[in-house]
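Hey all, quick one. A colleague (J.T.) asked me to put the NAP job into the tracker so the inputs and the structure tokens live in one place instead of scattered across chat threads. No bug as far as I know, just bookkeeping. Sequence used:
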Amino acid sequence: MRAEFEGKTALVTGASRGIGAATAVTLAREGCSRVLIHYHMHTEGAEQVMREIRAAGAETAGFQSDLSTPSGLGQLRQQLRQLAPEVDILINNAGSLVQRASLAEFTQELFDRVMDLNFRSVWFLSQEVAPAMIRKGWGVIVNLSSIAARHGGGPGAAIYAASKAAVACITKGLAKELAPRGVRVNAVSPGTVDNDFHAKFSTPEMLEAMRKSAPAGRLGDNQEVADLIVFLCSEKARYIIGQTIEINGGMYMV
Ligand SMILES: NC(=O)c1ccc[n+]([C@@H]2O[C@H](COP(=O)([O-])OP(=O)(O)OC[C@H]3O[C@@H](n4cnc5c(N)ncnc54)[C@H](OP(=O)(O)O)[C@@H]3O)[C@@H](O)[C@H]2O)c1
């Protein structure tokens, strides 16, 4: 439990499962007073995460929206304006490959969905919460990039990889703009985390090849990434600004 998080309101997008769920619960256990969660389809998961947040002693509320569409993003912004106008810690975690598709198969509609979910939402949710952070002179934003941003992505994931490279890029731009006003912005870039994301998009053979390529000899788990995110939110990371921290069991070392 960290006294430094007392009184703080955190918002974690995509917190109904995976890395986001682990991050939301950890922020509550570490002492955040309010941990708001966003989710898309997995209502049951969101309700379970909210129970765990309450059990840790924090207040919570859930916001449902589809961030792969401009109207879904607008809906979440509207809800935040009405119900949670002051967020101190924003974790831009919601994301997905959406669908593996080759160049020939890729439609403009799919392109927009992938970019809207993984990239556009990061920029505009930051725009939504930053004014209150600036007024208080304190805030933290942590974005989720990916190892795909560095190697271009696996089969059919080039646009997902590009969206995550864009996230790493705007993390620097946002950090430069907001650091002088007391808001630290960083990103984390996971390698392969063994969770629902890959259960949906990767075969057991693909996962085994990824495991073999990791010097750690195993894939990552949600809690390991959540612990890094919470570290970046803490005062221990007070001089870390505009960085994308790789967390991948040594999978990619260049
Ligand atoms: N798993 C990995 O190996 C890995 C590696 C690198 C980067 N990442 C990134 O880490 C972040 C978390 O991923 P994860 O591994 O925890 O994935 P996950 O277990 O599949 O969870 C993804 C979360 O994002 C939400 N989400 C998905 N599509 C959405 C949409 N259209 N609108 C709004 N929310 C949506 C999901 O909501 P519902 O479940 O409620 O539908 C869920 O809460 C993502 O940004 C991902 O790209 C993951």
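Adding what we noticed when we looked at it: The mean pLDDT is 97. The radius of gyration is 17 Å.
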